[in-house]
Amino acid sequence: MKIHNLEEIEFFYTKFAYNRNVLTPRFDTESLVREAILLIKKHEISTLIDIWVWSGIIPISIWKNVKLDKIIAIDKSKKALKIAKLNAQKNKVLIDFMEWDLLKPFLDKKNHNNIVISSLSRNLLITANLPYVKNEDWINMSSDTKFEPKMALFWGEKTGFEVYERFFRQVLKFRQIYDNKIFIMCEIWFDQKEVAQKFLTKLGFNFSFFPDLMWIERFIKISL
């Protein structure tokens, strides 16, 4: 698999390849990986679904520290999936990669991928690192973000939380067709705790927040 302009970065004690087609791995996301590993061990979670996988740092880092029966990684970018597949191969991690948008194909009764849901066993963890920055904040971002795909960070007109709102509405429908326990962990922007809290409360979710490396509460943990 030949991919051009690759760089390498260490994340959670593992080296990952990346380029301008994916979100640059950031050390703050290690907080999510750490909590996910603890959660998997505590609740005997056997399956992981990672939404918008980018370079694959989340599912690969988790798998290297705790074994799972099944990992599904979803992204809507063909170029990002190529990078994630490369990193999975380098680290000998078996992942089912799928070019989808969020959970939508799982919810289509006519879609053959509903077979995937019926094959999932025991408890499930969904991880997500979706775009969370308001479009208007592009000008205020650090210079390194200019070399990342805009769709990796910017996808909201008002709060930046719009993609997550769409995702969580799909989670409600997914909950109706998946019988076992579902846990969700996701990363949000530093100023979104209030908007996230309001939206998740409205949906009736059981949730809590936990901090990044700077002790800013920008990770959400949900149990359904």
From TrEMBL:
InterPro entries: N5-glutamine_MTase, SAM-dependent_MTases_sf. Gene3D superfamilies: Vaccinia Virus protein VP39. The lineage of its organism: Bacteria, environmental samples. This is Protoporphyrinogen oxidase. PANTHER family: HEMK METHYLTRANSFERASE, MTRF1L RELEASE FACTOR GLUTAMINE METHYLTRANSFERASE. SUPFAM superfamilies: S-adenosyl-L-methionine-dependent methyltransferases.
